[in-house]
Write a structure and sequence with these properties.
By secondary structure, this protein is an alpha+beta fold. It is built from 19 helices and 24 strands. It is rod-shaped and about 200 Å long.
Amino acid sequence: MQPSISLYLRGLLITVCFTGVVAASLLHNIRDERKQTLNLAINTARAHFFKDLAFRQWATRHGGIYVPVDERTTPNPHLAHLPERDITTPSGKPLTLMNPAYMVRQLMSEYSDLYGVQGRITSLKYLHPGNAPDAWEEQALRRFETGAEEIMEVVGEGLDAHLRLMRPMMTQEGCLKCHGHQGYKVGDVRGGIGVRVPLRTFLEGQAHSVHNLKMAHGLFWSIGMVLLLSYLRATHRQQRQEQHLRQLSMAVEQSPVAVVITDPSGTIHYVNPSFSRMTGYDRHELLGLNPGRAGAESLFKAGDGEMWQRLLAGRKWRGESLERRKNGESYWQNVLISPMHDHAGRVIHFLAILEEITASKEAEIALIQAKEQAEAATHAKGEFLAAMSHEIRTPMNVVLGMSEMLLETNLDQTQLRFAQVMNHSSKTLLTVINDILDFSRIEEGRLVLAEVVYSPGQVVAEATQLMRLAAEERGLRMEETVDPTIPATMLGDDGRVRQVLINLLGNAIKFTQEGGVDVRLAWDPDQKGCVRFSVSDTGIGIADGQQELIFERFIQGEAGITRRFGGTGLGLTISRRLVEMMGGRIWVESRPEQGSTFHFTLPVRQAAAEEARPSPEAAAPQPKERALKILLAEDVEENRILFEAYLMHTPHTVVTAADGLEAVERIAAEPFDLVVMDVQMPRMDGHAATRRIRAWEKETGRAPVPIIALSAHALERERSLSLEAGCDRYLTKPINRKTLLAVLREVAECRQAAS
């Protein structure tokens, strides 16, 4: 049985018993009070009876008394047979004889008027009509004839009740004088003397006493209940505390984590079984020891000042530690140590909770190792891709550049076709390399988005204009629509937005045989504060089961797509990752043979319109280009030839250096307007050469010459390294002639403005 239930039953039993005792005492006292009240009334009645009896006996012993005659006391007609009933005093005053009954009747009447107690003399053979018995008296008189010596009874109800008492009146010798003629003999029951006592006064006193008894007993019961309730509450509180302590003790004893209690010096006072199981020490081996000698050497070593400083300052300490069991086996544990204070706030004990985390720690270590291995593998993959990119881009720079230069010469139709195929294939291969590098950067988390002000409408126009020629070559129409309420400027990476648009436009053109491609920029109807870019075509469409798969890497709509149309299957994967990085989403709506519509949304982050970059059409007219003297540091001869070919028919002159060391020597020997520095070269690479040039300029006080880093590496890391080395710009191979000339034009303008 639970303690609370047992205590409840005990309290209920005590309450019932105590209430019963108090009630019994009250009933006993009320009954005793009523008995005392009745006895008092009886004693009063008997006192009045004996008074009346004494009066009568006195009058009987004297044969009656003579009293003056008046209106109230007239001669008794029942004593007319007595010759001396009436006499006259010598003074002539008339007197009449009052027999005992006559006298007592008048005395009783006087006493009743004074005190309310009524006396009666009555007989079955009464002489005076006033002595005629009532019904109660008649019954009492008859019982006297049967031997009863006293009749007493309470008659009436409530406060109007009376106590009636009557005793027989025996015939004596003196009674025969007046009553002998009625046939009475000495010793006969001649009648009875009765007393009628009102009980109102007695009952009122009794009611007051009963009320006081009830109040006293009620107060006593209330005090008892308060004391009992206090006792029960104290007992219940004590039982709860004891039960709480038992539960706490059981919880600590059965806890799966180890619990240790020490004094402020670190001496063990208590350990639970879990600590013994964890360390391999029995409890009796641990009590009185320092935890540092019981499987917690690294945790409780004396030199761990930071932990003890926190604990002695009254603060908790949490940490992990590698410990050894009694058998020498190592294990990891998670530790929480809390100081325990007394009422004055002093630290009196330390409570340590220790949980073994060997499995999770080993899993964590394995996970970290796996993560490091994965990161190393990803890094190695990135390095491999960067190296392959460099090795492919270097000759491709020559192939693509030479094909562009060849297309600018006079060729017959066959030669033109060959040159176009070579140029197109080079661009296709470059797209594949760029896609793979972009995907690698995204996977490694090294792709950084720019934060510039751009015009979304202008990006749509530029992408459409760039792809319009390809569409027209396939006989497709291309239209663009921009909602005029779209903000003129936004914050974001316009280059990546343009990349996604060009990828979608390229796919739309590639997979559409007839009809057209439409580009639309409008507000997204499903998400407030976002714009939606849409590219629609009338091409082959995409089946329902393939519409989500096409965004997976290396996946295309169906087998044979690659053979029919080409591509790596990375374009849409990269587009999705880019859109998600920019805070939007991308999806497709399509039906086979009815075309497709690709949508992607971007949140609008507005910028001031005046911060937007001016469009090329709005740029001011440029002055005549200045001729530059350029130093080209390039170890590959084919690239030097291509660079020189790019600058044919321009006012610029080129001086070449085969490596970085030669470039440094050239700079020291003669002035140049611009240095184009290849990054990877023998003897001294481009970064080292740039740092050497910047140091020489600082030492000699020369004005810094613009240096453009040129590399086949397309990773962002290479760009950062080049800029840190002191380069002003970074260009990635392959670089086409138009891009190179545009850069040279910017440098020439800056040099001209400076001069």
